[in-house]
Amino acid sequence: MISARGLRKSFQQKGQEPFEAVRGIDVEVRRGEAFGFLGPNGAGKSSTMRMIAAVSPVSGGSLRILGLDPATDGSQIRGRIGVCPQEDSLDTELTVAENLYVYGRYFGIGRAEVRRRAAAQLEFVQLTERGGAKVEDLSGGMKRRLTIARSMINDPEMVLLDEPTTGLDPQARHVLWDRLFRLKQQGVTLVITTHYMDEAEQLCDRLVVMDKGLIVAEGSPASLIAEYSTREVAEVRFGIGENESSAGAVESAVGRRAERVEVLPDRLLIYAADGEAAVAAVHDAGLQPVATLVRRSSLEDVFLRLTGRTLVD
After folding, report:
1. Looking at residue 15, what is its pLDDT?
2. Where does the source fall among the domains of life (predicted)?
């Protein structure tokens, strides 16, 4: 569905040196899978997605979407994919059903057919009863579901979803996850960018982690956790301002039971195969943390190890 080799994207502003947002990446997305792009702000995710959507020209390397060249077949590609942007661009003056009808007509779909598709999509995203309501009266979760329904009106082979659940409450996120999972079951290829690591673990078959325009890791969520983290993570908290000063004693206490100890302002993270044994070693050494927690390693641990904990503006 997507084949990129040495893909690059540069921007040039008058009087300034060129800025390379995507610095030569290789990506393969297979039909019917859910593929994720993860990375901090400025990693190059959005620039990559815009090239895949055939709305931003490639600066270097090669890119094929559905076997087509976006430089010459952009219109054909855009007719066969769906796009769910990060910011809702729904027409608030129209009703829910009218938003789908008008958007479907942009693709040249006949009036009767677009009405049939709109009804089917509203049922799919559980908005049938709100078809006559104005968009401005919908909740945030409903608007996101409507945006996904709109992206499906042309019966696309692949849907690009940019931060699909940003700003939603947990209940709305899980409803949206269910709809996306059902799309995947129907054979639709999903390409997702997200800042939510649990979302990537839930939805993505494979993913890449991008940082500073490059791919720094690729694989399934489980394989990335196995490669870049440990089976468990023990979190231990000491008093205010005491975590950094306690790090050396904790490292000595856990010894070889831990792969590494990471110091954060509010806690220490002990990466170990057996988190309970690591916590017991801390107590056996006479140390007295005010709180402890043992959890399984997550994709977030991998993400922060690969991209760092420093904020990127």
Report:
1. 75
2. Bacteria
Give the Cα separation of 89 and 58 in Å (integer): 25
The total number of structural domains in the chain stands at: 2
pLDDT of 313 strictly over 80 = no
Task: Examine the domain organization and report whether 45 and 165 are in the same domain.
Answer: yes
Lowest-confidence pick of 171-185, 261-275, 297-311: 297-311
Is residue 123 in some structural domain? Answer: yes
Q: What is the C-alpha R_g of the chain?
A: 23
> Which alpha helices (H) appear in the chain, and where do they start and end?
45-52, 70-80, 96-106, 111-124, 140-151, 170-185, 197-203, 221-228, 243-254, 275-284, 299-307
**How many angstroms separate the CA atoms of 124 and 119, rounded?**
9
Model confidence at 227: pLDDT above 90: yes
Q: Tell me, what's the pLDDT at 116?
A: 97
DSSP 61-79: EEEEETTB-HHHHHHHHHH
The whole-number pLDDT of residue 181 equals 93
Mean pLDDT of 101-113: 96
Please check whether residue 126 lies inside any domain of the structure: yes
Whether residues 155 and 8 share a domain: the answer is yes
What are the angstrom distances between the C-alpha of 284 and each of 87, 253, 254, 287? 52, 8, 10, 7
Looking at residue 194, what is its pLDDT? 87
Last residue of a domain, one of 198, 223, 248: 223
Structure tokens that stand for 163 in this block? 């931060």
Q: Are residues 19 and 93 in the same domain?
A: yes
Burial 189-204 (b: 16+ CB within 10 A, else e): bbbbbbebbebbbbbb
Is the pLDDT assigned to residue 311 strictly greater than 60? no
